[in-house]
Amino acid sequence: MNKVIGVIGCGWLGLPLAKSLVTKGYEVKGTTTSKEKLETLSNAGIAPLRVHLSENEIQGNIQEFLNGTDTLVVNIPPKLRGKGPKENYVRKIALLAANISTSAVREVLFVSSTSVYGDGQGEVDEETLPVPTSEAGKQLLETEKLITENPNFEATILRFAGLIGPDRHPIHMLSGRTNLSGGNAPVNLIHLEDCIGIITSIIQNNLWGETINGVYPAHPTKKSYYTQKAHEKGLNPPSYNTSETENLKKITSCNPFITKNYVFSASI
C-alpha cells in the first residue's frame, strides 16, 4: 500500500479514480490542464500539478511529477474528433514515454479504447488482431505498441468500451432521433464504477504485461437497450430503420482477470 500513484489526466474518469485511490490509502498525484482545477485536486487529497501535453512539448514540470511515482496511469484520450485541429497523438504520447523512461516509474497503465477494433470485425477479444477503421483507433493502436515495447517499464493496456456514468449516457444524444441504423448491433459499454474498479484491481494485483478489454459482459441490441433507457429516464426513444447492419462488433474478453476474477459492480 506504499505505492505512489500518478494519474495523468484528471478528467471525467481520472479525477474520480484518483479520489478513490486516495480513500484506499494510496499517495496520489494528479495532473490537470486547468489552473482552476488545481484546488479541486488538492482539496481531495491529490497532489496536483498543471501539465499540458502536446506533440511538440510538455508544459509543466513533468519530471517533478514523475519523481517518486511508482505506478503511472496514463488517461489522455486522443483529440481527433470535432471541428478543431487534429493532433498527432502517437507523437504526443511518445514524448511522454520518453520522459517516463528517464524516471523511476516502472509500471504504466495505459488507458486505451476498444476503437482499436474495426467496425466490421464482428466478435472480438484480446486475442483478436485489431484492424482499426477510425483515425483514433489507428493512432491508439500505434501508441499501445510504443508503450508496450518500451524496455524501461512494465505496461498494461486497458481498452475501455463506451463509457457511461451518472452524468454521461448516449441516450441523451440519441433521444428522439429517427431512422437510425444499427438497431440490431450489440452495445459495448462500461460504467464509470467498473472503470475505477478494474484499474484499482490491476494496481493492487500487479497485473502488468497484460492487454485487457474493459467492457460489461451483457450486450443487448442497441434498439432494445436504448428504448429501455429512454423509458427509464422519461425521454423519447430513438427509432431505428429496418435495414440490416454490417457493424455487428461485439467486444468480449478472454483475459482470465475479467473472465474469472473481476466482479462487475455496476450494470449498464
TrEMBL record:
User: Residue limits of the NAD-dependent epimerase/dehydratase domain?
Assistant: 9-174
Which Pfam family, just one, is annotated for this protein?
Answer: Epimerase
Q: Which InterPro entries does the UniProt entry name for this protein?
A: Epimerase_deHydtase, NAD(P)-bd_dom_sf, NAD(P)-dependent_oxidoreduct
Q: Check the record and name the CDD domains matching this protein.
A: SDR_a4 (cd05266)
- Annotated Gene Ontology MF terms? aldehyde dehydrogenase (NAD+) activity
Please give the GO cellular component terms listed in this UniProt entry: cytoplasm
Known PANTHER family for this protein?
NAD(P)-BINDING DOMAIN-CONTAINING PROTEIN-RELATED, PROTEIN YEEZ
Recorded protein name is: SDR family oxidoreductase
Question: What organism, scientifically named, is this protein from?
Answer: Maribacter flavus
Taxonomic lineage: Bacteria, Pseudomonadati, Bacteroidota, Flavobacteriia, Flavobacteriales
